[in-house]
Amino acid sequence: MGKTALLIVDVQNDFCPGGSLPVPCGDAVVPVLNRAIAAAHQRGWPIIASRDWHPPTTKHFKTFGGQWPVHCVQGTAGAAFHPQLQFPPETVIISKGARPDEESYSAFEGTDSKGTKLAEHLHLLGIQELYIGGLATDYCVKCTALDALTHGFQVHLIADAVRGVDLTPGDAARALEALRAQGASIAPWRE
Questions:
Q1: Is the peptide bond before 136 cis (omega within 30 degrees of 0)?
Q2: Of 55, 102, 105, 133, whose CB count within 10 A is highest?
Q3: Active site residue 72
Q4: Predicted local confidence at residue 2, as pLDDT
């Protein structure tokens, strides 16, 4: 069995209730993720957290021709991680969508503070297996998990630690079906 890591996708204030692009019940993932973080920390698994880190002007936003309202602008309160997430100090932060010409749904399109892409970072650590949770099931979580599978990682999606946007009703359920079809396992977090 290869080494395992926990990857938490975009649990940021703007994606939670009260934010500029809230996922319905997005904050409900926090208690489950905190249990997963505590267990991962105890087991010595690396913990990685991705975040949208958009510049104020980006093709990602409606005002500049994109699909989405302004959200997760670099350095704003909306871009901060949910305040109740209990990340240990050594958590690696992956920032994505940081350039004006980037969409960057997948955490695999982001880099750490040294500019290292996520896949390279995981390979350097010898990671083969990823547990993934976060927001939103039908966008960044789906894209991240599909990229993880493409990069050869074994993917376990934490079913009770994801929530979907469902712009079209059923999007989140279809995302889970697509992930399952590509080989991801999907189950609630178990200690």
A1: yes
A2: 133
A3: no
A4: 61
